[in-house]
Write a structure and sequence with these properties.
It is a single chain. The protein is mainly α and 223 residues long. Helix content is 79%, strand content 0%. It has ten helices and no strands.
């Protein structure tokens, strides 16, 4: 049976796909134009596998560190659970575009990490092979993204580094349908997920789930 946390991570990725299209859609489209026109699907899959690999590495890192600290402090575990619910609400607001709830986090990631990593792009271009497409996806998997950072707060609640990596794998799988559709040139899903009413509906789901997580975390903190 699939761990509920893995399933929730998958749903979060699926619901947040509209944001993924906005953040990485241009990258996926440019990848299609810059590669072998006879194998667009293969290149798109390779790119997304690389992206998922970076997510899994990040998930393993944060889960490995947090699980070690959690063994020393029960309060730390409960705090992480509370943060997971809080970030879920922020993601919901972000998707609904009701405020720049996560832009500060993306700006922080850009300053601390991305401005250095993006320089590696020159070693990958031109993308003329599937391994390069995978490497390109792995690099852009570190693009500052509030949705990814929020998923990482879930990974941090995992008991082991492997579980943290699996949380991020399921999150990545949830984003695959939207990202692969872009790689194939389909725009229907893009329009649907970015429709105002769709954003409100999907964002509301995340907000209510975030509230549910906060209630559970608060109950544990009080008892």
């Amino acid at each position: 049976m699939i761990d509920p946390l893995f399933f929730s991570a998958f749903i979060m990725g699926l619901i947040g796909s509209g944001h993924c299209i906005a953040m990485c859609g241009g990258i996926a489209s440019s990848l299609q134009l810059a590669t072998d026109k006879n194998r667009p699907l293969q290149y798109s899959i390779a790119y997304n596998i690389g992206r998922a690999a970076s997510y899994m590495l990040a998930g393993a890192l944060v889960a490995g560190i947090s699980s070690h600290v959690a063994t020393q402090s029960h309060w730390f575990t409960l705090t992480l659970a509370f943060l997971s619910g809080l970030f879920m609400i922020l993601v919901g607001l972000y998707i609904m575009r009701l405020g720049a709830s996560l832009q500060w986090l993306e700006s922080l990631g850009k300053t601390l990490l991305w401005q250095h990593l993006v320089k590696l792009n020159r070693f990958i271009m031109p993308i003329n092979s599937l391994p390069k497409a995978m490497a390109y996806g792995a690099l852009w998997g570190w693009l500052p993204c509030g949705l990814v950072y929020s998923a990482l707060t879930w990974a941090m609640t995992s008991n082991t580094a492997l579980d943290g990596a699996l949380v991020m794998l399921f999150f990545a799988l949830g984003t695959f349908p939207a990202m692969l559709s872009i790689g194939m040139g389909a725009q229907v899903l893009h329009k649907v997920l970015n429709h105002p009413w769709a954003r409100i509906a999907l964002g509301s789901v995340l907000i209510w789930y975030g509230i549910y997580l906060l209630i559970i975390a608060t109950d544990k903190l009080l008892h």
